[in-house]
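Morning F.,

Quick status update on the modeling queue. The single chain you submitted on Monday has been processed. Sequence for confirmation:
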Amino acid sequence: MAEGVLNLLVVYSPAAREVVERPVELPQPATVAQALAASGLLQAFGLDAARLRLGIWGRKATLEQPVRDMDRIEIYRPLTVDPKVARRERFAKQGSRTTGLFARRRPGGKAGY
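C-alpha cells below.
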C-alpha cells in the first residue's frame, strides 16, 4: 500500500441477489463523490449522483463526506415495497399458526410456548 493512497470499495446492487463491487484507489484526501466518479458505476448504470442514497459501512453518507482507507461505499436502491406492508402480506398469506412464536411447538407443549 502506497503512502497517501486510499483503497476503497464501491458497491451497488442493481437487482436482488446481484452485487457489483469496484475497487478504487484515490489520493488523499478524497470524498465519496470522487470515489463514485472513479468507480464508473454512475455511468455504467445511469445513476444520478444527486439523487442517490449512500452509506459507508451501512451508515448514511453524503457526497461531500471524506473517506478513509478501506472504506466500503454503498449505493442504495429505493425500496419497491414498504417493509411493513410486505410483512403484513406475508403474515396474511402464511397464517398465524405457521409463523413466529407459534411455528414450532414441542409435542405435548402448551400453545404459545
